[in-house]
Every structure is written in structure tokens, then in C-alpha cells.
Design goal:
alpha/beta; Rossmann fold; 3 domains; five-stranded antiparallel β-sheet; three-stranded parallel β-sheet; globular
Length: about 375
């Protein structure tokens, strides 16, 4: 842990004048390491709020940054959208965010659109765009793996959507074809090395998607009482993260979890890609859809299900959204979507860190299917 903190504080250029403001729960590695142990062990001021208070009143984070001259915070990606949408003008009266020098997007796939929404909402209160950083992190490396270089904006890479989804290559945009705007999670910390590996363990060049592998002086030696998991995860001194991504000029772009992959007719499909497409459908809001695979025994492969929460209770409007979702996914991805499941708000299950719990949502869907 000391090796991690040494490397991470160097990347953050931490000083005794820093003030860390956090609402993150301490049962999650981002909250425990970055939002609690690091400021305590490094002897800097920590302003700690309850995550329950933050959810009920997200403006309290901004008021605390202003009151205590906060300089550092960590947020999962959903929090950027949540704050931009929920914080009211009257709760920001007199707030000054100019002291915030590093706000790190971490814990789930980072989205350029979320950063833009957050910056545009709070720029007039002194927020600097250069403060918006990204990190790729995991408990298996104690915490941080990468970080945006300070004083720079996260690198973005606009790529051809079709080749990214179907061929797993981050090709440049093509005239008239849909694109994706990927945002980098930063560069490897000083004590960490990264490789992108193919299925047979060979190192891949820039812009080709494979499994992220890391090596550092702070990574795990094994999983507790799980020699089977340890054997799968460690290879020749490298930890296989189970995450897919690609590199570009030493920047790391994370695509999704290997275990979440859906295989449809021999094609590999990332649920995150389908969810991003779902959010383009009018009536479906960001963060309120989940994609997963279910077995199609007759076809001998998987079928994709997308569950989407909507605000309307009108059956005809729900049917229109479902039809639009099927059409949009089928036209813009490698799969033909049959199962578009429209549900009420709060149907989708989340993990303790706010991520979508895919396996739990899959089980919930199957249980409802069996009982219907």
C-alpha cells in the first residue's frame, strides 16, 4: 500500500496544502484508499461526508469544496451526470469552486459526455476544465493504475463505431458513418507497467482492443483462499485484469469487462456499447439501461436483452420506446435486438459502488420471465 501511495501522490503532486473532500463510502477501494487512508497517512486535511447525505443533497459536496477550499475529489462517472442534473441554483449561491485542482473520474467507464455536462453546469462557479481528470483503478493494485497527467485534459479519441463494435479495432472516423468519442483514463502510474494482450497472450499494438495486463510493486500476490482464481489471474508476473481496452500514445482507453462480454453468433458484443446506443433513444436516460445475454438453447448461442427504465406509464408510449430501441440497436450494432424490456424507475439493480450489477439484473429478468 505504501508503494501505491508513493506512486499515486507523485502523480497527483500532492502537497501539505491540499484539502481532500469526499463522500465516497469506505467499504469501496476508491473511498477507502483515495478518500480516507491516503489523506490520513500523508497528513493532509480530509473533509468527509456521508454517502447517504450526498445522495439526498449532492450540493453539499460543492458547498464543502467552497467552504474548506477543497483541492481534490474522486467521483464515479454517474456522479457527474447526477450532479449536473440534480444540483439546484439556489443551493450554489456564493459557492466558489476555483480551489478544486483535481477531480478524478474513476470506478466505472469514463464518459466524455459526462465531463462536458459537469463542466458546463459548474463552470460559472469557478470550476476549471483542467481539473477534470480520469483514473483507471482496481483493488488488485491497491487502487490507482493510471491517472490523467496534471494540467492536461483527458485525451479523447473519436473512432468509427462499426469497426469498434464488430472488429474490436479503434479505427478513425469514416465519412457518413456513426462514431464514438472515447476518453482516456490517463497514463500508467510511475510504478506500473501496462500491456494490451490478445487471446493467446501476445502484446497488441495501439488501437487494437485486447485484455489489459499490469505489473507493479503494489499489485496482489493472490486472491485470499482462492488458488483457482489466482492461477487464472496471474501469468509470468503479470496480472490479467479481465478488462478490455486499447492504448494510444501511452494513453489507456478502457472498453469493458471481459466477464460481461456477450457472444452472439460468434460475435463478441460489449454490453456497454449497447447501453450507449440505448441512451440515444428518446425517452431513455443515461445510466438507466442495462444489457446482458441470455441463453438461446434452440439457436445454441446467446440473445441480447436490454432493460430500460422510463418515466412514462403510458402503454402506447412504452411500446413506441421499445420499438425505437430495437430498431436503433439493430441498425447500429452487430446484433438484432429482440428483447427490449421497458420497466419502471428503480428497477435496475446497482452494486455498492453505483455500478450496474449485470448478473443480478439478468437473474431478476429471468425470474420475472418465469413468473409471467
Amino acid at each position: 500500500m505504501l508503494n501505491q501511495l508513493n506512486a499515486y501522490t507523485r502523480a497527483l503532486q500532492l502537497t501539505s496544502d491540499d484539502v481532500l473532500v469526499s463522500w465516497l463510502p469506505l467499504y469501496h477501494d476508491m473511498g477507502l484508499i483515495a478518500g480516507f487512508l491516503m489523506p490520513i497517512l500523508m497528513g493532509i486535511t480530509l473533509v468527509l461526508q456521508s454517502p447517504f447525505d450526498w445522495v439526498r443533497a449532492p450540493h453539499k459536496l460543492f458547498q464543502s469544496v467552497s467552504k474548506y477550499k477543497g483541492t481534490l475529489s474522486w467521483l464515479p462517472n454517474f456522479a457527474y451526470n447526477f450532479c449536473a442534473q440534480k444540483v439546484r441554483e439556489r443551493d450554489l449561491e456564493g459557492v466558489d469552486l476555483s480551489s478544486w485542482r483535481v477531480i478524478t473520474n474513476c470506478s466505472e467507464p469514463v464518459k466524455w459526455e459526462s465531463h462536458q455536462a459537469f463542466f458546463q453546469r459548474f463552470e460559472k462557479y469557478g470550476l476549471r476544465e483542467s481539473a477534470l481528470n480520469c483514473s483507471y483503478a482496481m483493488a488488485e493494485n491497491v487502487f490507482g493504475v493510471t491517472q490523467t497527467p496534471l494540467g492536461t485534459k483527458p485525451v479523447t479519441d473519436e473512432i468509427d463505431r462499426e469497426s469498434y463494435i464488430n472488429e474490436r479495432i479503434a479505427n478513425p472516423p469514416m465519412d457518413g458513418k456513426p462514431t464514438l468519442k472515447m476518453m482516456s483514463s490517463g497514463r500508467a502510474l510511475p510504478n506500473t507497467r501496462l500491456l494490451i494482450l490478445s487471446e493467446d497472450g501476445k502484446s497488441l499494438p495501439d488501437k487494437v482492443i485486447g485484455e489489459v495486463a499490469l505489473q507493479s510493486d503494489c499489485m496482489l500476490t493472490g486472491y485470499y483462499h482462492r488458488p483457482d482464481a489466482t492461477e487464472k489471474a496471474l501469468r509470468d508476473g503479470w496480472y490479467l485484469t479481465g478488462d478490455y481496452g486499447y492504448t494510444l500514445n501511452s494513453e489507456v482507453f478502457v472498453a469493458g469487462r471481459k466477464k460481461d462480454m456477450i457472444i452472439v453468433g460468434g460475435k463478441n458484443v460489449y454490453p456497454q456499447d449497447l447501453e450507449s446506443l440505448a441512451y440515444e433513444v428518446p425517452g431513455i436516460h443515461a445510466g438507466r439501461a442495462v444489457a446482458f445475454g441470455i441463453e438461446d438453447a434452440k439457436a445454441g448461442t446467446e440473445e441480447v436483452v436490454i432493460v430500460a427504465e422510463v418515466d412514462t406509464e403510458n402503454p402506447e408510449e412504452r411500446q413506441r420506446i421499445a420499438d425505437a430501441l430495437r430498431k436503433h440497436i439493430t441498425q447500429n450494432s452487430a446484433i438484432a435486438l429482440r428483447h427490449a424490456h421497458i420497466v419502471d424507475p428503480k428497477w435496475i439493480l446497482k452494486t455498492s459502488s453505483g455500478k450496474t450489477a449485470r448478473s443480478a439484473n439478468r437473474e431478476k429478468f429471468l425470474q420475472e420471465l418465469e413468473s409471467s
